[in-house]
Amino acid sequence: MTLKEQEVIMKVTVKEGIKGFLGLLNSKNNLTYTEF
After folding, report:
1. CA 3 to CA 25: how far, in whole Å?
2. Per-position b or e across 2-17, b if 16+ CB within 10 A of its CB
3. What's the sign of the alpha-carbon dihedral 12, 13, 18, 22?
4. Rounded to an integer, what distance in angstroms lies between the CA atom of residue 28 and that of residue 13?
């Protein structure tokens, strides 16, 4: 795996993590929120 590939994977992982985290926050505020 090249350094560039690792960088892309890290960015995607971070983005997914943020999306999941925001989804959790939203689900606490709105129980009908199901999209993560």
Report:
1. 33
2. eeeeeeeeeeeeeeee
3. positive
4. 23
pLDDT at 29: 67
Tell me the per-residue pLDDT of 1-36, one tens digit each, with 9 for 90 and over.
799 999 999 999 999 998 888 888 777 666 555 554
List Cα–Cα distances, 28 to 5, 21, 31, 32, in angstroms. Answer: 35, 11, 6, 9
CB 26 within 8 A of CB 20: no
Neighbours of 21 (CB within 10 A): 11
